[in-house]
Amino acid sequence: MTQAQHPAPADNPDLGLHDPLADSFPTGVEGKLLYWIAVAFSLYQIAIAAHIVNLTSQIQRALHLGFLVLLCFPLLAALRGKGRGAKMLAWGLGLLGVIVAGYQWAEYVPLMMRSGALNQIDVVIGVIALVTTFAAAYVIMGPALPMVAGIFLIYALFGQHFPGPLVTRGYDFAQVVEQMSYGTEGIYGTPLYVSATYIFLFILFGSFLEKAGMIKLFTDVSLGMVGHKMGGAAKVSVVSSGLMGTISGSGVANVVTTGQFTIPLMKSFGYRPAFAGGVEATASMGGQIMPPVMGAVAFIMAETLGVAYFDVVRAAIIPALLYFASAFWMVHLEAGRRNLRGMSRDELPSARRALREGWYLILPLAVLVYLLFSGYTPLFAGTIGLALTIMLILGASAALGLPQGTLRVIFWIGLGLLAASFLEFGNNALWLGIAILLLWNALRTGGRETIRQVIDSLAEGAKTALPVGVACALVGVIIATMTLTGAANTFGLYIVSVGKDSLILSLILTMITCIVLGMGIPTIPNYIITSTIAAPALLQLGVPLIVSHMFVFYFGILADLTPPVALACFAAAPIAKENGLRISFEALKVAAAGFVIPYMAVYTPALMLQDGGPLAQSIGYAPAVAYIVLKCLLAIGLWGMTVTGWFIRPLASWERVLTAAAAFLLIAALPLSDEVGFALTALCAGIWWLRRTA
């Protein structure tokens, strides 16, 4: 069932040097133990999602964090080749995480009874929970997030000594520990709840699809569709990364998977290494704004705002398409400027053939999207999508043991009916079908190989979930501090005071805050922090609820492309064999629309399919949507011409000034700016038409 991936070029560097989690599980007894802990973690999460095991929400979160800590420390120590002493310490920290989870489970009811009056053991366990969570975050993602969370924790403990408006009334040590380590305010808060339910399940879903050959399918389709066009190699990167983003939702992960193929391909066709890396980083980060997964932030946003998941996706869909349209346009112009032709059709796979041979891989994703858009909960939809993917993998293997012809057709029809039965009987019918297929495959040599691939996917999914889960736990410290001290109100009041005089200044201040906080911090914790601090202030300034949250979310993503940190760009650096900062500057050019779209949505919410805004009130909702999309497309097109200096032919300096002015005026929400912007756009078009016909 598993299909071969597109091979990376022979000179491709070892990606594991950049990210230890890119490596497989280590060999030996320790490696096998870690492997089966990861498998047990995934099976536990599936059992929770399928309601095979039912636990209270608090215990469920505690066990989730316990698994994360147990797996995180020894796995990272083993993958980094640490010595015996470091490994013993790692296992000790991992077991402390298990003790904390066990204590939360065993003392669940007594802890509720002791709320507000913790005993000494409670405080000690709470401190251990904090220490292991901070340490796990440091080990797996570096110092940035632990430092930010540490500053907030210090503020909670010693805020009474801070100056001016930051001063607090002071809180007892035990009260701070209870706020951080118990209940649903701190490390066991909403972010960890979402990680323990939706996020883990969708990461596992993506892991199974990748094992089944989805990367190859997307790449083949992309090559067949746009590989022969001008600059086809770079356009393949944009399309394939966008498609992969729909299932993985991880920017850096996309860079180190699809980038292994697309970056060397772009370089071989004449693209500069920095530009090739920038295109891949930009397109990969766009996966986090592309429904249905959206880097898992969609689920957190829906939970935080108390809105349906569909509402979040609806707000994201047009900006996501515009983002990728911008990246596609930029690589087209760069190819034209450098006269980079497409690949020969003879060398490319057929998109039609790839879909004909691999269409069944899209079925679980299609069912998932259908369920999400039909109003089912993300947890139910994710469970069904995962179960269908496992059934597909096991069923394809089982079918190989049947003779070609009628019997195999009957088998697939029966399996399809069984898969569809969840609509009538729930997901229990799917798990029953999976159990039968497991037994069937266990009796065949080839089937046992497929079962091993399924188990590998369970282990890989758990490993992939580690950074996200640990980050979700640690940002709970930040949220708990702001809840305890009211720090968010202080910052929010400042933004509101600025916004009363100038909304644009408030937006710029918020953008800078998101980008600074995003330096080295993954998108999920960045969104949680900035949405807690800044988004409420934007709401008070009249920005619609979802638009305000999308604003901070977008700039949290763009932080991974912005110097000096630019995680996605530095992930692309060893593949492109280019300096990460140079890649970052190229990525900023390609991602220009990402900086424009949030601002345009604030002034015209119709861009995110939201009601409100003066334009919708004056011309109606549907015309407002059409108008703002057209204006966005024109602004993107003009900005691309300005940056590259090319459109059909090289542009003179005065022409680039003209296109820059037109793009700026279309973006600006000032009196008559649209009219002047459209006039300048028409002037540019007229000049080019006259020159072309001359």
UniProtKB/TrEMBL annotation:
A Pfam family assignment: DctM
Cellular localisation: Cell inner membrane
Bilayer topology term: Multi-pass membrane protein
GO molecular function: transmembrane transporter activity
Ranges that cross the membrane: 33-53, 59-79, 88-106, 147-167, 187-209, 316-333, 354-373, 379-400, 407-423, 468-496, 502-520, 553-575, 587-604, 624-648, 660-690
Key words of the record: Cell inner membrane, Cell membrane, Membrane, Transmembrane, Transmembrane helix, Transport
A GO cellular component entry from the record: plasma membrane
Every TRAP C4-dicarboxylate transport system permease DctM subunit domain range: 131-610
InterPro entries, A to Z: DctM, TRAP_DctM-Dct_fused
PANTHER family: BLL3936 PROTEIN
Free-text function comment from the UniProt entry: Part of the tripartite ATP-independent periplasmic (TRAP) transport system.
The name this protein goes by in its record: TRAP transporter, 4TM/12TM fusion protein
Species in which this protein is naturally found: Paracoccus seriniphilus
